[in-house]
Amino acid sequence: MLLIRCPYCGERAEVEFSNGGEAHIDRPRDPMSLTDEEWAQFLYMRDNPKGLIAERWRHAHGCNRFFNAIRDTRTDRFVVTYEIGQPRPEVTPEQAAEAAR
Amino acid sequence: MSLLSRASGRTLGRVPGRGRVNTRRPVRFTFDGRSFEGFEGDTLASALLANGVHLMGRSFKYHRPRGPISAGSDEPNAVVAVGSGPALQTPNLVATQVEVYDGLTAQSQNRFPCLQFDMGAVNNLASPLIPSGFYYKTFMWPRNFWTKVYEPIIRRSAGLGVAPTAPDPDHYAFQYTFCDVLVAGGGPAGLAAALTAAKAGAEVMLADETAEFGGSLLFDRASRIDGLPASEWVERTVAELKKLPNVRMFTRTTVFNYGPHNMVALNERLTDHLSAPNPATPRERLWQVRAKQVVIASGAIERPLVFEGNDRPGVMLASAAQTYLNRYGVACGRRAVIATADDSAYRVALDLLEAGVKIAAIVDIRPKPDSELFRKAKAAGITVLTNSTVQRAHGSQRIHSVELAPVLPGGDVGEGKNHRCDLLLMAGGWTPSLHLFSQSKGKVVYNAELDTYLPGESAQAERSTGSCRGLYDLGEVLADGLKAGVAAAKDAGFEGEVDLPLWEVTSDAIGRGGFTGALPRRGKGLTAMAFVDYQNDVTAKDVKLAVREGFRSIEHIKRYTTTGMATDQGKTSNLNALGIASSALGRPKQQIGLTTFRAPYTPVTFGAFSGHERGDLFDPDRRTPIDPWARSKGAVFEDVSLWRRARYFPQPGEDMDAAVARECLAVRKSVGIFDATTLGKIEVVGPDAAEFMNRMYVNGWTKLGVGKCRYGLMCRENGFVYDDGVVGRIAKDRFHVTTTTGGAAGVLNMMEDYLQTEWQDLNVWLTSTSEEWAVIAVQGPKAREVLAPLVDGLDISHATMPHMSVVEGTIGGIPMRLFRVSFSGELGFEVNVPPSRALEVWERIWEAGKPYDMTPYGTETMHVLRAEKGYIIVGQETDGTATPADAGCGWAVSKLKKDFVGKRSLALPAMQDPDRYQLVGLYTEAPQEVLEEGAQLVASPNEVIPMNKIGHVTSSYHSATLGRSIALAMVSGGRARMGQTLYVPMEDKVIPVTVTSPVFYDAEGARLNV
Ligand SMILES: [Zn+2]
After folding, report:
1. At B8, is the pLDDT very low, low, confident or very high (cuts 50, 70, 90)?
2. Nearest residue, CB atoms, A66 vs list B290, B756, B898
3. Is 0.90 exceeded by the ipTM?
4. Which of A32, A45, A79 to mutate: most B Cβ within 10 Å?
5. For chain B, what are the domain ranges?
6. B275 CB near a chain A CB, below 8 Å?
7. How far apart, in whole angstroms, are the C-alpha atoms of residue B711 and residue B699?
8. CATH of domain B679-771
């Protein structure tokens, strides 16, 4: 079972969390101004990387807050977790290599 | 056969003065119905061996007689069932781990009719017909023979134990815990590591799978630590550890799984070794340990040698014989031959000799063994044959002789000589136990010097210490353990200086040794039964055959031959299989690699995994405060999401249809009472509450007045209906939102998601209030007359409190939110009160309703009443592909709002398609015909298969109110089909139906506005 660091509560077991899919996909401010293609892109298209992904997690059985995390999908190692609204942090090559290990 | 077993059965193998068993505490137990005596501290295997019994099982495929080859959890042969009766029998335990107690009953497995004479042994004669991959080859044709003929025969003859058939009467516990340093294995390295990690200040857990700490030191009579015999050093160290408050120690506890992020699973066996356990004590406890650091001190396992007859009872590992002698005080035979590729076997020979066992010969595969032990053995007068091999072991249910033969220059094997013996010991060198390291995702690395695999770079916060990383000298092992403990504590954050104990160690010098693969033999040996994997009956030639048939990857060879796949997970067999595959493939071992080690390390009972989660606790249901009342009235219940709900209230002699018809008519004619507590409730509060509601729901909320209610419909961003429910505006900044019973958690999650991640500009708070309000629905033309006298002077007249309004007040002094809403189509109220007072309020209303013949009704009647009105149920009419318009709720969608969740998607062209499935009503031609929910609709009675489906029935009931059946359906372009005849093809008939409006009763809503 993974150990996940909630930015508000600290490290907790995976069972307390639910995954919320890819992060940093902002809902358009004025959806009606988008073309059908643009809207479909927002609604359905997601990355599925083999490697680092920025994703949303919710501390569902804890503080109930959403936060973001960078995780390596191959190893399930987390590089960092951070609060909603913060930009995606830079990952150094060393951090990436450690996560891929 | 009978002579042999009688002779051996009477020969007691107990050696006075040896072993750690308590000879003052004899215990009686039975094996296959025969009574035996053992001592407290014995395992089933040691006690049987003490009684001269080697034959303990039959092999998996060929039903060959087998005895134990080991003295621990690596045992592949002596697999037994313990306990008796349909519930208490535990199959597939190894006799080398089962501890005896007074009254223990054990049975051998995989034999018929008995262990000594087994019909299945005919498989042994037919062995040339059962080569590797025989499952795949032999039984492919004819196809239907597999399930009818082959499989039943194979299952009966090839298999392990029998699963218990009755529920398990024992109970099991489960616990999460944390520690700084978890030490897996309580041998010398593990004890040393635990001690120093604890002294550094770390919280330490130390676990060992056996009954005692000490590992190899418990059978090591040669070594001295600080001048003490090794076993006394163990006692001293264990006592020291026990005094430390930051150490938790577990015996009979197997570390069986190493999961991600240092989550490690332990299984603690608490009562299996007791004859009269305290019933309050769980049989086993599963520990899930999150360890900052793990020290793997799992030891090494001695390798068998692969030669013809190496599975005969009486053939065992040298270290096992040493363990039986020194730990249990049992000599496993009277005359031993020792086959070795390793110096440690010479110490075993000396130990046995000292205990009075004759050593017929030591045969060493190495050309020029030379060590102090070798010289000691020679000096003791033991015959040592070097550069020699075992050609074949003779004997069926017990070995009686063995042919030893010289290896000639060039590698051929010369003519040999038979040596009489009743015990043949194998010492093929040591295999470091890599299971936990491999489970932690660490990559193993081949070490040419030791000719074995060792732990490579760590993938998690762990380190291996002692013989599991290839150290075999006791002094080195202890020093390595000390270092590992300090390093683990340091990595866990305990940096302080530790006073390292300085232990003075004297022990045998062990030189280079070890052998992998099959021993050289004379002749091709095409029919020789030389076993690599004892438990799965895989022979050397099976592995060679797999290579000849084209298998190259070790993972494929494993699956084709099944080597390493049984409950022992290849503990004794992996390296020999690798050695044979390597020479057959002509490729070095390091290019072939090891197969993956799977968890669990040893088998774990299902009971341990399920813990307390069984019976009523397997899937607990939520119950409302009205549940006891409903039970007292004889309600029939159903599960609705996590809740248990009253479905109907049958009176004597009534079936469901009769009860529902009566309940429906009562609501329509007078008044009914219904427990709606399971509705989800969310309190939406804050200055921006209305704006938040505008964005979340398809409806408009700005103009909803305080004290008014509105039916709210929620879509997902893809435009499809997600949930619905009535929403009341309690104050300008406060909404009382209700959701479907099953949707409450999901709706709150979705609201929180938007609020936290998209609309941080909104000042709104969301609180789940599902558990704060019990809901009593009072529905029917007499509802107001029942309630009016109870609500402490509140004016609930139609003028003051019209349909779709909400008011706060009290009922008999109890705080209440009173909604005037209806899911039945009749005048209706929903009384919201705190759950702690709900039963009291319910009973008061029940009393007040008696003059009106008030009737309790359940979910089934609720469904019929709402279907008569064409009210949808999300998840029944809708299926995740229905828009509000599809579900007949287009009227609820605000045209004025610029945006809401789902609005953009509803504007996509596909959402306007006139052929979309739309909600309609259906009348069957025959009024008493009730359609099946889920039935398909077609346009013509003469459709040919595959039919062109144009819709399906979503709800279908007999309506007592209308005196006929009604149904709701989703039909392609349904609203344009009013009056059309469609067809429902069933297995035995085609039912014609007429498309109609989904509102069957009181279409103008007159009954709501009274
Ligand atoms: Zn949290």
Report:
1. very low
2. B756
3. yes
4. A32
5. 1-166, 172-300+432-506, 304-428, 526-587, 679-771
6. no
7. 8
8. 3.30.70.1400
